[in-house]
Amino acid sequence: MAVDKRLERNARLMELLARTALADQKAFAELYRLSAPHLYAVALRILREAAAAEEVLQESFVNVWHHAGSYVAARSQPLTWLTSIVRNRCLDQLRRREVDTVTMDDEEDGVKVAAEGPTPLEMLLSGADARAVRSCVEALDAGPKQAIALAFYQGLSHSELAQHLKQPLGTVKSWVRRGLERLRACLDELGVSR
Amino acid sequence: MNLRAPGRADALAAEYVLGTLRGRARTGFERMARTDPVLAEAVRRWEERLLPLAQEMPPLAPPARVWQAIQKRTRGSARDAPVPRASMWASLRLWRGLALAGLAAAFVLAIALFTPAPERPEGTLVVVLATQDAKPALVASADRTGRILTVKALAPVELATDRALELWALPEGGNPRSLGLISASGVARVALAQSADEVLRNVPALAVSLEPRGGSPTGLPTGPVLFTGPVQRLY
Question: Is B214 exposed, middle or buried (0-12, 13-18, 19+ CB in 10 A)?
Answer without folding.
Answer: exposed
